[in-house]
Amino acid sequence: MSSDIKGGMVTMKANDTTKYLIHAEIEAEGVVERPDVVGAIFGQTEGLLGGDLDLRELQKTGRIGRIEVKIESKGGRSAGEIKVPSSLDKVETAILAAALETIERVGPCSARIKVLKIEDVRASKRKKIVERAMDILREHFEEPEIESERIVEIVRQAIRADEIVEYGEEKLPAGPAIDESDAIIVVEGRADVLNLLRHGIKNVIAVEGTNIPKTIVELSKKKTVTAFLDGDRGGDLILKELLQVAEVDYVARAPEGKEVEELTQKEILKSLRNKVPVEQLHVLKKEVREGREKEKTVEKPKEGISDVLRKHTESVKGRLAARVLDRNLNLIKEVPVRDLVKILKTNNMKGSAIVFDGIITQRLIDLAAKKEFDYIVGVRLGSVVKVPTSLRVITFDQL
Fold it and tell me: Domain with 347 in it: what CATH number?
């Protein structure tokens, strides 16, 4: 370990074994100098924290570095900053920092010390390593042969995130090759863009929702467009909207039940190879048949059951709460609406009915059906494509 010896005391330099760096500010009612501040720190903390955390002993063993003080005097007052390097653990370093704030005088002057922050020196070093590694990758690994290398995941992710751009007036997430490419790939969201960038596909742009942005519409008039969408009902809805407002040439889908953001490189390339010209899309004709895919099964419950569900409805209404009921329609669990999906995903969650102060979505219907619930009761029905026959969907105004 690199160190200095001054007056028989070992002083650790801040860049040797330092784990943390205490940053503090000092104000004094009078003119004081650096030696006065250092003397006050040692003198007024002596014996305060016991032998294990005595500053002089800590410096002798190299566990506390040289205390740096920068202070200036103006108009009869002094102010400055203090830095204390520490190789102690988090708890000991925090106690030491708190001890600095007990100092009330420096020399003959009243003074106040306030800790501003405790810097994790190792975290700063790690950040510099990542930044430098990114620079090295850009400067020295420009040829394709770097595919044979295994790059640390955090650096690779950072580079991919750095490549993503904001495109058009809506600032849509996109790859850097949209303008220079004759063909583009349209996906649903930012996570999909990042996944395709991760696997070297840079002519990709996201619609960010079912309302197709004007930028996508305009691009579709000038470029060959492949819509690459999730293999679920959400992907069906976005595809339907795209086909209504934009000029789509091809359609590629993730495997059924999967999302583009979670696909491997092999799955991405296979999906894109299997893209279908819009003219051959039979599924679109099925979508156009009004009523077939929109059979929103809404039934009134039997007498007696209706009364019990109404009682639970009154309990959650206006509170953004959700109730899960057992086979006898007794309360199993009440949670905030925002936690309902998470609760339903737990392995041991079984019941007969869900009553909640929110909008009934396709996602909730799918989860409830998977868990074999009989009823789902909510404020109103959202954008639902299909309801299983095993599940009865009820809105508040029907009870």
Answer: 3.40.140.20
Q: What is the bridge-based pairing of β-strands 68-74 and 77-86?
A: antiparallel
Whole-model pTM: value is 0.36
137, part of any domain: no
Give the number of other Cβ atoms within 10 Å of residue 174's Cβ.
27
Last residue of a domain, one of 288, 323, 350: 288
Distance of CA 23 to the CA centre of its chain: 29
Boundaries of domain holding 27: 3-120
Query: Do 203 and 271 reside in the same domain of the chain?
Result: yes
Q: Are residue 233 and residue 278 in the same domain, yes or no?
A: yes
Per-residue pLDDT of the chain (399 residues; tens, 9 = 90+): 444 434 433 344 444 578 899 999 999 999 999 999 999 998 888 888 887 888 888 888 888 888 999 999 998 899 999 999 998 888 999 999 999 999 999 988 999 999 999 988 888 788 888 888 877 876 766 554 444 445 555 555 555 555 788 898 888 999 988 988 899 999 998 889 999 988 888 899 999 876 889 999 999 999 999 999 988 888 888 888 888 888 998 999 998 888 999 999 899 999 999 888 887 764 444 444 444 344 444 444 554 688 899 999 999 999 999 999 998 899 999 999 998 988 888 767 788 999 999 999 888 988 888 888 999 999 998 877 777 778 889 999 887
User: How far is 224 from 220, CA to CA, in rounded Å?
Assistant: 7
